[in-house]
């Protein structure tokens, strides 16, 4: 992903990741993008405690926080979701508030159409 950002000279607002177990590989390939602190990531993943702990380690290295998309609660350790199986999480820079336009969105819902959410 870092290569594509550099090649196209684009910084995406949102990246959706659904790669069936390779999420941490994608995130590691987006390290430079994350360090710019302008991009949110929504990840569909099949959670295990160890897997989620790896994602949380990435968030610490990049200055991001992880949130459970169903209710907007911050994820601070992998065991919080280890019982879930498949779920969606939001990763975003740690200085941003949870986006108000995502409150109440169910996991099966399509993402809201973005208008201008720069204030969130």
Which percent range fits the helix content?
25-40%
**Could you tell me the mean pLDDT?**
86
Q: Tell me about the biggest sheet?
A: 5 strands, mixed
Oligomer: single chain
Low-confidence parts lasting 5 or more residues at pLDDT below 50?
A: none
CATH architecture: 2-Layer Sandwich
Beginning-to-end CA distance, first to last residue: 24 Å
CATH top level label: Alpha Beta
Strand content: 15-25%
Structural class: alpha+beta
Strand order of the main beta sheet, please? 1-2-5-3-4
List the helices and strands and how they pair.
Blueprint lengths: L1 H7 L5 E4 L5 H6 L2 H5 L4 E7 L2 H14 L1 E5 L5 E2 L10 E8 L27
Parallel strand pairs: 1-2
Antiparallel strand pairs: 2-5, 3-4, 3-5
Write a structural description:
This protein is α+β, with helices and mostly antiparallel strands and 120 residues long. It has one domain: Translation Initiation Factor IF3. Helix content is 27%, strand content 22%. It is built from four helices and five strands, in the order H-E-H-H-E-H-E-E-E. The protein has helices at 2-8, 23-28, 31-35, 49-62, and strands at 14-17, 40-46, 64-68, 74-75, 86-93. Strands 1-2-5-3-4 form a five-stranded mixed beta sheet, covered by helices on one side. It is globular and about 40 Å long.
List keywords for this structure.
4 helices; alpha+beta; five-stranded mixed β-sheet; 120 residues; Translation Initiation Factor IF3; 27% helix; single chain; 5 strands
């Amino acid at each position: 992903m870092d290569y594509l950002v550099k090649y196209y000279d684009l910084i995406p607002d949102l990246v959706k990741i659904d790669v069936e177990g390779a999420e941490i590989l994608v995130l590691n390939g987006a390290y430079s993008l994350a360090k710019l602190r302008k991009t949110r990531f929504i990840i569909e993943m099949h959670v295990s405690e160890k897997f989620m702990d790896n994602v949380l380690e990435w968030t610490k290295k990049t200055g991001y926080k992880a949130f459970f998309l169903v209710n907007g609660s911050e994820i601070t350790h992998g065991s919080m979701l280890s019982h879930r199986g498949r779920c969606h999480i939001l990763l975003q820079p740690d200085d941003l508030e949870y986006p108000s336009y995502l409150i109440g969105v169910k996991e099966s819902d399509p993402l809201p159409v973005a208008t201008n959410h720069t204030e969130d």
